[in-house]
Design brief:
Helix content: over 70%
Structural class: mainly alpha
Distance between the termini: 24 Å
Number of helices: 6
Shape: globular
Strand content: under 5%
Radius of gyration: 14 Å
Number of strands: 0
Length: about 130
């Protein structure tokens, strides 16, 4: 799992959202079948990397349907993170929502969500 997280981070850092999203999507069924998803922090990390990778892949989406599907993956991840029992993951859900808003052409909403995420990160002592 840590290798997958690291590789997806590197893919996104290199600007290859498609590779990150494909990598996570390929591993997701095995992750869902495994017992790892029962460990809350592991599930939360995987949900976050899935949502962030889907957002990164939107730029490379070839058509409206692919873009919409990726935004839906990110939205599901954001909702799950925002209701996460581990408070430190909730602001990451707001960050995903901000990215979704920006990619949907809603910059004002994205800014509001980014400010909310920053405030929530401060609340859970994650100022960086």
């Amino acid at each position: 799992m840590l290798l997958l997280l690291g590789e997806a981070f590197v893919d996104r850092y290199e600007g290859d959202g498609d590779a990150a999203s494909a990598r996570v999507d390929a591993a997701w069924p095995a992750f869902e079948r495994s017992m790892l998803g029962r460990v809350r922090v592991v599930r939360s990390q995987m949900v976050h990397v899935r949502g962030a990778s889907a957002l990164a892949a939107v730029a490379d989406a070839r058509d409206r349907a692919a873009r919409s599907a990726l935004l839906n993956v990110a939205d599901r991840a954001a909702r799950e993170l925002m209701s996460d029992p581990i408070a430190a993951f909730r602001p990451a859900g707001e960050l995903l929502r901000a990215g979704i808003a920006a990619l949907r052409g809603q910059p004002e909403r994205a800014l509001i969500l980014l400010e909310r995420a920053a405030s929530e990160f401060d609340t859970v002592d994650m100022a960086l």
